[in-house]
């Protein structure tokens, strides 16, 4: 297997950060990002829930447990809004430059300020580029590898047809339903947010 890039983790101790697969133009801003990540960041808005495991503020759509909850439990004890000041944020411990690079700013300034669903959406973008190696210790502990079948975590409002089209599933929504009938249930038109679907 070729060596994968790792944007998620800032270099620690003597461990080198490998930035593969990006052009020189993309490398320069990333190298400059760590200093920016260390700058003062805004406080959590009043009324926000700090340290709440799984789920978000009152009124959020109930979300089915998925593999991302297991990773979050390993990375942050299941605290989706954790901010310990170590430059890694949220349940899946995003490094700030990674959060920016993979589109997190459309949801919130930092991962710990985003909902679990939004953090998962960004994590799936990271997964498609870096594989499970973006969370090396925890995915190894959970038995996940790049040979594991690709998954997609359902977001509110999505349908099997949408997901099959977005990921080019051969056989369309019918094939996707067949692969995931055990978790979807008897009605393919009812998808619970948070359900992890196998795509292949």
Question: Can you walk through the features of this model?
Answer:
This protein has 200 residues and is mostly helical. Among the domains are: 24-36 and 64-141, Orthogonal Bundle (Lysozyme), CATH 1.10.530; 151-198, Membrane-bound Lytic Murein Transglycosylase D, Chain A (Roll), CATH 3.10.350. It has 7 helices and 4 strands. The strands form 2 sheets. The protein has a two-stranded antiparallel sheet. It has a two-stranded antiparallel ribbon with strand order 3-4. A hairpin with a 4-residue loop joins strand 1 (88-89) and strand 2. Residues 1-7 and 9-61 have low confidence and may be disordered.
What are the defining features of this structure?
two-stranded antiparallel ribbon; globular; disordered N terminus; Lysozyme; Membrane-bound Lytic Murein Transglycosylase D, Chain A
Secondary-structure element string: HHEEHHHEHHE
Rough shape? globular
Low-confidence stretches: 1-7, 9-61
Q: Total helix count? A: 7
**Level-1 CATH class name of the domain at 24-36 and 64-141:** Mainly Alpha
Strand order of the largest sheet: 1-2
Let me know the largest β-sheet. Answer: 2 strands, antiparallel
How many E strands? 4
| Head-to-tail CA distance between termini | 20 Å
Radius of gyration of CA atoms, rounded to a whole number: 17 Å
Class of secondary structure makeup:
mainly alpha
Helical fraction = 25-40%
Query: Beta-strand percentage?
Result: 5-15%
Average pLDDT works out at: 73
What is the CATH topology assignment of the domain at 24-36 and 64-141? Lysozyme
The CATH architecture category of the domain at 24-36 and 64-141 equals Orthogonal Bundle
């Amino acid at each position: 297997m070729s060596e994968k890039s790792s944007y998620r983790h800032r270099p620690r101790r003597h461990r080198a950060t490998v930035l593969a697969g990006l052009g020189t133009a993309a490398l320069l801003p990333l190298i400059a990002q760590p200093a920016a990540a260390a700058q003062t960041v805004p406080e959590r808005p009043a009324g926000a829930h700090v340290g709440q495991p799984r789920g978000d503020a009152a009124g959020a759509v109930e979300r089915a447990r998925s593999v991302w909850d297991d990773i979050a439990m390993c990375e942050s004890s299941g605290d989706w809004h954790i901010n310990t000041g170590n430059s890694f944020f949220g349940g899946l411990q995003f490094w700030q430059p990674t959060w920016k690079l993979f589109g997190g700013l459309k949801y919130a300034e930092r991962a710990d300020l985003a909902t679990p669903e939004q953090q998962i959406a960004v994590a799936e973008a990271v997964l498609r580029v870096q594989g499970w190696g973006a969370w090396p210790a925890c995915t190894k502990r959970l038995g996940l590898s790049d040979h594991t079948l690709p998954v997609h975590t359902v977001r509110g409002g999505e349908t099997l047809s949408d997901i099959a089209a977005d990921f080019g599933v051969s056989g369309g929504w019918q094939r996707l339903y067949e692969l995931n009938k055990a978790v979807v249930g008897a009605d393919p038109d009812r998808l619970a947010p948070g359900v992890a679907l196998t795509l292949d």
